[in-house]
């Protein structure tokens, strides 16, 4: 689970498109506690990282990016802005969250399962269009994780990254936080498929699944472990 904000993109003729598949964010409430009022549950939900979603031709099922070959569609994605104009990122319903991406509902949280085709990374939303921003100065942050079924070789993590609240939504991108866009971290990942509404396909290397540009921001690691190493 990965928490915090991102940057959303809204646009016209040359904008990254949103598909027509319905998005159903898994609910996950959190408790906000004070000495005066005790703990009050706040509704929140999770969204799947954009890199893991189906990317296809707008109003069509032609794939824009082949995750098995780690390669862009040479016809639809000849250059970054044209690729964004031609391709749509789609929603994920609860059934797909569970059975395709391994994100299942659990009491007071979620269960992240290892799926061969997907290692789920999710972000917390404050509402349907905005990531939840955690302001932790002079506050305590607590969570529980069951790692009893997380063996050596697999890794679970909770951390904060300085994503923009709306996931980068702008005139260049219609998707934004609702579709898990805007991820960044301290390692400046270059495998991000879309940056500021344009495909990151320049100098794309299918062996490493990385492009020319990285997306850098501050990162604070809270927890990272499996059942053999806590």
Structure notes:
The chain has 230 residues and is mainly β. Helices cover 6% and strands 27% of the residues. It has 2 helices and 17 strands. The chain has a 3-stranded mixed sheet with strand order 1-14-17, with no helix packed on it. Strands 2-9-6 form a 3-stranded mixed sheet. A 3-stranded antiparallel sheet has the order 5-12-13, with no helix packed on it. A hairpin with a 3-residue loop joins strand 3 and strand 4. It is globular and about 60 Å long. 37% of the residues are buried.
Low-confidence parts lasting 5 or more residues at pLDDT below 50?
A: 1-13
Mean pLDDT: 89
- Number of β-strand runs: 17
Number of helix segments? Answer: 2
Helix-strand pattern, N to C? EEEEEEEEHEHEEEEEEEE
Coarse morphology: globular
Class of secondary structure makeup = mainly beta
Largest sheet: 3 strands, mixed
Distance from first to last alpha carbon: 16 Å
How large is the share of residues in beta strands?
25-35%
The level of helicity is under 10%
Quaternary class: single chain
Overall radius of gyration: 18 Å
**Major β-sheet strand ordering:** 1-14-17
Kindly list the characteristics that best describe this protein.
single chain, 230 residues, mainly beta, three-stranded mixed sheet, 2 helices, 17 strands, disordered N terminus
């Amino acid at each position: 689970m990965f928490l915090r904000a991102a940057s959303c993109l809204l646009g016209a003729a040359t904008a990254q498109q949103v598909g027509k598949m319905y998005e159903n964010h898994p609910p996950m409430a959190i408790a906000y506690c004070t000495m005066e009022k005790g703990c009050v549950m706040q509704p929140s939900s999770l969204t799947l990282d954009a890199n893991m979603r189906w990317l296809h031709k707008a109003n069509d099922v032609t794939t824009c990016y082949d995750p098995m070959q780690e390669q862009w569609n040479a016809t639809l994605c000849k250059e970054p802005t044209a690729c964004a104009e031609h391709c749509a990122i789609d929603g994920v319903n609860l059934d797909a969250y569970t059975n395709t991406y391994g994100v299942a509902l659990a009491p007071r949280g979620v269960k992240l399962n290892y799926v061969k085709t997907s290692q789920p990374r999710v972000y917390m939303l404050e509402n349907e269009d905005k990531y939840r921003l955690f302001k932790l100065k002079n506050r305590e942050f607590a969570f529980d994780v069951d790692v009893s079924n997380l063996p050596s070789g697999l890794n679970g993590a909770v951390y904060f990254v300085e994503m923009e609240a709306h996931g980068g939504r702008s005139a260049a991108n219609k998707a934004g936080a609702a579709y898990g866009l805007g991820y960044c971290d301290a390692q400046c990942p270059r495998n991000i498929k879309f940056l500021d509404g344009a495909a990151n396909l320049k100098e794309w290397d299918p062996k490493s699944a990385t492009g020319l540009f990285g997306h850098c921001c501050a990162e604070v690691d809270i927890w990272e472990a499996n059942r053999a190493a806590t």
